[in-house]
Amino acid sequence: MKNKALVKAGFIGEKMTVIPRGLLKEYSDSAINRDLYLTDIGYFPKALYHFRKRPKGCSEHILIYCIEGQGTVGIEKNIHHLKPNSFLIIEANKSHYYYSDKENPWSIFWIHYSGNHSQEIYRRFAGQNYGRPIIIPFEKNRIAEFEYLIDIFKNGLSKEIFEYSSMLLYKTLGSFIHYSLKSSKKTESNHDQLINNIINYLNEHIYETVKIEDISKAFNKSPSSIFTLFKQKTGHSLIHHFNLLKIQKACELINLTSLSIKEISFQLDFQDPLYFSRLFKKYMGVPPSKYKKNL
């Protein structure tokens, strides 16, 4: 890269917060912050000539989220191309460089983060995707979360605000990591859509008794294939999931209505209130009468 690629004046519309290292040392050791905290965060729009090179790496992990344009990221011997709606995490202490495309410069949100959980978060990303960029659907909420995380430091750099940023950081990184784990599963698509449709069906019939034969008929699948697939995808049986949905609905009815426990039992199609009470206690730890009293 030529010297002109090194930007000194910044980019029009950029946002950036760098936590002063003195404060960072003081704040990052608290019980809330030590597991995950940010050190730097920003947004560079249309970042023409944006270039960074760190032969010895960076002490923090770096997430780069490209929302338009494109750029290149080199990590040790691997070269990756970031395109719109894609992100990449650079592992801490790994030699790397990155730069924006001259013809179509990228607009990126970026964040440096560290903490006891930071390496595990990176492993969740790299273990499923071999450290490659991940295409992620554009969501306004994700952009808003990033912007909010940048903007909260306008109110100052108190310990309380820094702790708040650490709490928000879990959610922000989680939205990326969850999708990277999900996108790596080759059996996504049809099977996952079927499970989602079955769960929607259960919610729509929450006040009824639903048997696996009913679902088999509704989705034109054999009972055994539905039972096996549901168990594989959710980790538990279909009847367990349906009972859990019913108990959640029971809690809602206890909280928001004046119905008696017996009436709620019948409304959810439990014809034996004693069985309903036992099932409620199994999931909630207390019988419905005590749950209602505790409210």
Question: What's the short version?
Answer:
The protein is an alpha+beta fold and 295 residues long.
Give structural notes.
- This protein has 295 residues and is an alpha+beta fold.
- It folds into 2 domains: 3-183, Sandwich (Jelly Rolls); 190-294, Orthogonal Bundle (Arc Repressor Mutant, subunit A), CATH 1.10.10.
- Helix content is 46%, strand content 18%.
- It is built from 11 helices and 10 strands.
- The protein has a 6-stranded antiparallel sheet with strand order 1-2-9-4-7-10.
- A hairpin with a 2-residue loop joins strand 5 and strand 6.
- Helix 2 runs parallel beside helix 4 (159-183) and helix 8 crosses helix 10.
- The protein is elongated.
- Residues 1-9 have low confidence and may be disordered.
Features of this protein?
single chain; 295 residues; alpha+beta; Jelly Rolls; Arc Repressor Mutant, subunit A; 2 domains; six-stranded antiparallel beta sheet; four-stranded antiparallel beta sheet; 10 strands; 18% strand; disordered N terminus
Question: What layout of secondary structure does this protein have?
Answer:
Elements: E1 15-18, H1 21-27, E2 37-44, E3 51-54, E4 61-68, E5 71-75, E6 78-82, E7 86-90, E8 96-100, E9 107-114, H2 118-129, E10 134-135, H3 140-151, H4 159-183, H5 190-204, H6 212-219, H7 223-234, H8 238-256, H9 261-267, H10 273-284, H11 288-294
Antiparallel strand pairs: 1-2, 2-9, 3-8, 4-7, 4-9, 5-6, 5-8, 7-10
Helix pairs in contact: 2-4, 3-4, 8-10
